Amino acid sequence: MDVKTIAAQVLLTAVSGSDGLSEKTKDLLNEIPAGGVVLFKYNLGRGGKAALRLSREATVSVVRGGIASGSPGLPPFVAVDHEGGGVHRFGSDLTRLPAAAAFSLSAAPAEESVRGAALRAGRELRAVGVSLNLAPVAEAGEEGSSALFLGDRAYCADADATGKLAAAFVAGMDEAGTACALKHFPGNAAADPHRALPTLLQGKHALDAMASPFAGVFRSADPAAVMVSHAVVASMDPEVPGSLSRAVVTDWLRNKMGFRGMVVTDDLRMAAISSTGRTPAQAAVEAVAAGADLVMTWPEDLRSLRDALVVATGDGRLPRGRLEDAARRVVAAKLRYGLLPMDQAGLAFFEADTGGFDSIEDELAGLRTETERYLNERGL
Q1: What percentage of the chain carries pLDDT values higher than 90?
Q2: pLDDT digits (tens, 9 = 90+) for 94-129
């Protein structure tokens, strides 16, 4: 693959459209066959049929773009935040899972309940073409700091229990064929990164304790990805957001903790990044150089991020080997979750299979009934 195609593979972009992709977005994905697309609530308000159409049209646009450029047709990950509770992007067609904290408060065995709920929710996601769930939250909901930002998105305050419950969520999703991204490594401070740059002031031992739920997941499950927090880790790299810091991503998460999957950034347009004076394109180069494999962006920035990565590879700020390593991790994850390969014949079949749009509502109704029954039996 040429460097432009390799750079596109490390981009995870939002898209425009709610009942299908906008023509502008289709053209953009043809030109820049991104490694993934992420869907938000504004995309998904029209139900399961619209969600399936969006995921298929994104896949067709990306694969066609890759083939047209003389590269392999690499389908994108289709991602969504599907945590449960207040973080639910779909309407009523897909089950709204309980908030994470509800599992710890239930009388039913928490790990078993989390795994069973995640398995059923993962089946619902795959039915509408979603292959990457940007969940679960693996931060412990301690008093102060992260608790102010996370609320009931965290399972509980106990780090060991949080790690076990997050691992159960990953295992359930994995059984359904849906990849997961643990978040937000290593944690956040009280500041909301959408609005400001958080700073973690803890020392080494406290930071290791904060990250221990992630270590617990790595010991007992095999998550496809970890989303890194933008929070500055002051004792490691006092001037740089964690998502852009080699000390945090490579030295700590990769080398010390042994994580070998995809490292994903949070949205590079957040105030946590813009408040430092960096553009999304500048942040993308720093993030990939630091060890990230998939950087989150928006359609209006997609071309500038791709071009910035290409230029940085040419002038040596971003070693080509690091960019290739990032793309290989993304492709390896796609192989693991059955997204590859897709050639011209497979693409033609995929485009012609329009019957799925008509049957998806009945399929989702059956899946939703099963999920809701499971949750009700456990008092959730």
Answers
A1: 81
A2: 999 999 999 998 888 999 999 999 999 999 999 999
**DSSP output for 61-127:** HHHHHHHHTTS---PPEEEE-EEETTEE-S-TTS--PPPHHHHHHSSS-HHHHHHHHHHHHHHHHHH
Mean pLDDT of 243-250: 98
The whole-model pTM stands at 0.95
As given in the structure block, the two tokens for residue 176 are 């359904």
- Say how many C-beta atoms besides its own lie within 10 A of residue 220's C-beta: 13
Q: What is the CATH number of the domain that holds 30?
A: 3.20.20.300
Active-site annotation holder among 152, 174, 237, 266? 266
Instruction: Report whether 21 contacts 61 (CB < 8 A).
Output: yes
Catalytically annotated residue among 2, 27, 160, 194: 194
Which amino acid, one-letter code, is at 186? P
Furthest C-alpha separation in the chain:
59
DSSP letter assigned to residue 128: T
Contact (Cβ atoms closer than 8 angstroms) between residue 49 and residue 361: yes
**Is 230 known to be catalytic?**
no
Q: Which residues constitute the domain of residue 310?
A: 3-377
At 294 the three-state DSSP class reads strand
Domain count, the chain: 1
Q: Tell me how far apart the alpha carbons of residues 16 and 19 are, in angstroms, rounded to a whole number.
A: 10
Structure tokens at 227: 């989303």
Mean pLDDT, the chain, as a whole number?
92
CB atoms within 10 A of CB 365: 12
- In the annotation, is 174 catalytic? no
Both tokens of 360, joined, read 């998806």
